[in-house]
Amino acid sequence: MELATQALTDKPRDAYYWRLLATAASFFLFGVGGLCLRLLVFPLLSCLPGSAEQHQRRARHTISRLFWFFVRLMQRVGVLTYSVEGAEKLGRPGQMIVANHPSLIDVVFLIGLMRQTNCVVKQSLFQNPFTRGPVRDAGYISNDGSADMLDAAADALRAGQTLIIFPEGTRTTPGAAPAFHRGGAAIALRGATIITPVVIKVSPTTLTKAEPWYRIPKRRFHFSLRVGADIEPQAFAALGAAPQASRKLNDYLHHYFIKELAEDERPKSLEHEIKELIIEALGLEDISADDIGSEQTLFGEGLGLDSVDALELGLAIQKTYGIKIDADAKDTRNHFTNVASLAAFVTARQAA
Questions:
Q1: Nearest Cα residue to 317 out of 352, 294, 287, 344
Q2: Residue-wise burial string across 196-221, b where 16 or more C-beta atoms lie within 10 A, e elsewhere
Q3: From CA 243, how far away is CA 241, in angstroms rounded?
Q4: pTM for this model (two decimals)
């Protein structure tokens, strides 16, 4: 039994090193893919007949398909899981998509979800040898902070393009609320038919600002993307002159995201904590807490845990919640029936 316990405690560590290797391979593939697009794929696409607009549409379609392939690859190799709510509302003509920016791969997800979209991207991407070819051929807009950038973004919206913008301009500082710049609101008032907010959450946090790619979390992270209700920009345009209207729209968007993110960060229930503890303690890399039902049987035909898992889980619960579990007690097995019974057991022991 001691050897079995030791083997089981090695599983999370082994999974960590596998995810580290898979993350490194994913980023290497992303860089190589960017060079291949620049040196091989896009030169070949440019040889096809058609106007400059048609070439641009081909470039955007290619990038979108490859980005979504990259997302699915990271999921399949165990780097992440993801959920998308409301994707059918994305990709409409003249739509400006406003999103918060918690991680490095936010834009990869958004562009991957839509085959034809424009995006305001960092100016540095136009100098990066791995990315400058794709962003230029796709006609993405450089976020250089100039009036020309505002005009180009507004013109794209008026031409019927879908535009992605991150009003923060850079990734959110971990632990801080997002800070929006007024440029996004000004663009929306100039050219957007509709504004659609997208709330992005990454749990546990990773690939944040000033965080190297190799500092991965202890378990596979979950990327959540939720599309909100449309916002009419003209309702704010009627509130006054352009500077005043953009300020009010920016304040509205800022408060909207702060509220939505605060709701996501509400204290977790004890049952949810236990679900996450089960995943981490037993190295269940292929599921998330949402996949475990509170009333789902943990052993046998339910979640499929065995007696060794029971031992490891019991040790984790004792350590986490500071309680003692008597393995020989007759009712101990009943406490481990499901997450709900475990939560009730922990609550009762802590109260005692």
A1: 344
A2: bbbbbbbbeebbbeeeeeeebeebbb
A3: 6
A4: 0.75
